[in-house]
């Protein structure tokens, strides 16, 4: 056989083998449980950031991973039902958005690896034994330290110094970790000579009643705790605060972007990007128990000057100087 013919034959023989190898590459399955509505563009963007980071690490949908997303909204029954549905798919790992989604998933499995993206108190919630040694099938990234509650009150007093009554909003069903932030809030309220109002709201009717009662008297203010129920209803909360001319501080920038006065908290999207690195390691056979729980590393202060002006507030230069973004 001539040399050229032999090389041609060898090349032709190699092609089917390569194609077969590519086709036989194992497709890994990732489940995602979100406690938000599917039409929420902010959280769609967070998942896009997660997907983008996965791709950088060599994981591409339709090639070697499949991502199954379930949008549970903030309803407890929906979270429980969809967590069971996801676990039944037998994924290689599950991405969990919040504390309620992680609790529901752990009721269904103690073997499927779970990465939480923004959990408040994983030790107090019983998810992990410690940050350094999680000890089970779950690890991930926390939302914010409890001392953030005192920082929210400090910022509220800086931007609205006349405030002397502050309601701390949360839904007990979707924020079972409320005491994690309430303790430092109450302590800070004493030092700022502010009346601390613990304001649990279980539905929109209770939310409207609380804000209406607060707005009937002067010098009231709001702090909106990290809570999926409150995030879902952010437009209604901002509308109520505007109606009763109540200065309010939020933990998420997307509140400020749609008319909230001021927000301070960690960068949600950054935690989703970091979660991709843990997903990569687990898909390459690392154990969640070997991956320490991590704190956020990026924070952002956002101020809406248009809202401040509507409330008759002048933002101090010292606060403006610290802002990562000012909306005019």
Write out key terms for the chains shown.
13 helices; five-stranded parallel beta sheet; alpha/beta; 328 residues; seven-stranded mixed beta sheet; Rossmann fold; 44% helix
What's a quick, concise take on this entry?
44% of the residues lie in helices and 19% in strands.
Describe this structure in words.
There is one protein chain. By secondary structure, the protein is of the alpha/beta class. Helices cover 44% and strands 19% of the residues. It has two domains: 27-143 and 268-298, Response regulator (Rossmann fold); 148-266 and 300-327, Rossmann fold, CATH 3.40.50. It has helices at residues 3-23, 41-56, 76-88, 99-108, 148-159, 179-191, 204-215, 228-232, 234-243, 253-257, 268-283, 305-310, 317-322; strands spanning 28-34, 65-71, 93-96, 114-119, 138-142, 165-170, 195-200, 220-224, 248-250, 262-266, 299-304, 325-327. α2 (41-56) runs parallel beside α11 (268-283), α3 (76-88) packs across α4 and α5 packs across α6 (179-191). It is elongated. Mean pLDDT is 92; it is low at 1-23.
